[in-house]
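TL;DR need structure tokens for one chain.
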Amino acid sequence: AKLLAVAGFQSFIVTRPVVDNDALELLAGMTSQHSFTVVVDHFRQAELLSHALVAIGAATDVLLDVDLGQQTTGVRPGPDSINLAAAISQLPRVRLRGIFLDDRSPGTASENHAIDPSFAEALAVARHCRWMIESHPIQCDEIITAFEFSAEALNAAEIAAVMTSPMRFME
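>> reply
TL;DR here they are.
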């Protein structure tokens, strides 16, 4: 992010855990001039980020990384994601922005231009998880993914809103 900031980038999504003290201080310090959203899947990550931000009076958004069944990253959908969202909402200087889907397998479109079923299933999990969090009521505004799409998939009707990468789904 530091190198990209020098190149003129203003907004960043940090998709990997930031728990090292030096990295946390750097990230917190950069929030005064750049927009950051940090992906978390554990309360300790959010807590450490919150402490670093409180120390300098800065704030940032966080996204909840939801496990899509691959059991590699992410909090489990359901009670675990609701509990984590509730705990994050109590921390100072961080705001739960939404759900993050970490699915790096290339998306494809079928002959009728429908989104790959695995992505459609992942998106359904994220939408349901978001709905469950908001029903508690905890603000959870959007779904963002690092999913890679083919050109055909980008033209499919299921994509509600396409921004720049990473993609956003706002409902």
